[in-house]
User: What shape does this take?
Amino acid sequence: MGAPVDHLIQAALADEDPDGPSRWQAIAALQQRGDLETFTAARRLCAAATSAERVLGVDILGELGRDRPFTDKTIPVLRYLAASEDDTRVLYSVLIAFGHLRDPRALPSVIELSTHAEATVRYGAAYALPNLLGRPADPAGLAALRRLARDQDEDVADWASLGISLTSGHADDVRRQVLDP
Assistant: This one.
């Protein structure tokens, strides 16, 4: 099964660069495990004292295991963090995880965070929303995405505009299926 969970967690925490290759190699190894031991360790990290540990826990949970076997247990943990966390980096990671999980139960949390004062958090919301809107698109989620497309931060607005384009593509696919069976 590879390196022990604790060893991989320590390796990820040792790389202080949030985008560091050592960190993400360890995270990828943890995510591939997809087992209860890894889920439990990641969930525990989400309640840790340091933001670096909470970010790591969220990053692991966002793509844990093939077919995301722990989604039902992960969504409540992430929704709790979305509602209670103050750290921008943790909130950003929560939003990216929501996008990866593609579970519509996360939509209310993402809509709420789409109005956050920090552009980094709004960017995470712009990433997550297109993955959660559903078909047909949830009106409140689509309104949040449209608002983000007009955001003062160019990166947020660009990502949200892309999300709208992708969502429009889904609507075109549905129309084609109905018109050309």
Summary: Residues 19 and 159 are 19 Å apart (CA to CA). The two ends are 46 Å apart (CA to CA).
